[in-house]
Predict the 3D structure of the following.
Amino acid sequence: MSRRELREQIFKLLFRVEFNSMEDMSEQEKLFFEDEEAAAGKDAEYISDKYHRIQQRLPEIDAQLNEKTEGWNTDRMSKVDLTILRLAVYEISYDDSVPTGVAINEAVELAKKFGQDASSGFVNGILAKFA
């Protein structure tokens, strides 16, 4: 899988956090990887590892988002936008292997694909504050 495809898979798994308790997420992760379209082998390991690293930092990431946004907070954001922002903020703040510009560009692309019409501009505007 390409890095973009891996990132999309991480987004899809991370999105489940919005609908399930943290206690249920291990079962959700298992179900995610049982899906016939899910990654396998090293790709699955990469997705799972990065998902767990993001999940561990969710309180910190949400605090960073709430600090940078004006008139918005994580409770008011759409679940899709919030998940995209969490992934991107993790990559910008904690993943040295992903350049900031790439993290922002990939987040905007995810927003275009999965978000609403204004999602890409919203995501780009918030992430610009992290650059």
